[in-house]
Amino acid sequence: MEEKKKCDTSEDCQSCGQSGSCSEDDKQAHRDQMLKENLSHIEHRIMVMSGKGGVGKSTVAANLAVSLARKGYEVGILDADVHGPNIPKMLGLEKEKLIGTPQGMLPIPLPLYPNLKVLSMAFLLPNSDAPVVWRGPLKHGVFQQFLGEVEWGDLDYLIVDLPPGTGDEPLSIAHLIGQVDGSVIVTTPQEVALLDSRKAVVFSRMVHVPVIGIVENMSGFKCPHCGKEIDLFKVGGGEKAAVELQVPFLGRIPLDPEIVQNCDRGQPFVVANPDSPAAQAFSEITDRVEEFVHHREKAGPKASSSEKKEKAGRVSKFKEMLK
Fold it and tell me: Residue 309's pLDDT band (boundaries 50, 70, 90)?
């Protein structure tokens, strides 16, 4: 009887000619090994979250990733919003499609900054109008593929743009990544948005993800005609919430119509309008995120195996609750 060839962890199961003779447990063990191997090449992992939609979370995630790439870092951005993937549109990549290799899928590099790689469900859809009608377990499976079967290479930062809320996607990402450096919570100043953003802070603590801080988006608007500051959505709510929840406040991003225009044209705002107050705010927020991550890195070793096991147990319980 011919002896089965030893499993090659560099090749995904779909490309392997012998996967048909493997049990589901073998395949899962192989996927777990590929995930572990891929994550070992990613230095820092950051989740960008919001308690509700419409607060500009993807805009913050995209411009944070571009700002880090402009500093010379190797950066990846994972668009984890399976049902509403917007990152490719914001970065001018909406017509791109993923290319598969025996070692896995290749993320799409940003032409302007090749050191920024992008992965999104949008790259797998037949057209921009096609909906993704999936339940939780399917989404967990695709996230494992996006993290374990994609050739990210060596990254300094992986930015994960999560969908709004505290459901399946954040739980899956926290569980799969294991050691997340921190979460950036995006809100707008009005009370309704702040109420939900506070839940995102508590969620991060529940799954043992440090909160890097709160970003107050759409914070004030300067009239282009008279120059007067207008507080369309109030100002200061995000900072107040940060103080009350005892987490850092990363900064305010003023409302700027050019942000919308640049997103629609697929141009990163921090590149198109580098001297604007909003771009300066993005730059300062990026500096504070970078400072937080490096300070945490110097402060001591990462979580012990027992702490990781405890966290995994908590996440598993949350996932059971969502079934």
Answer: low
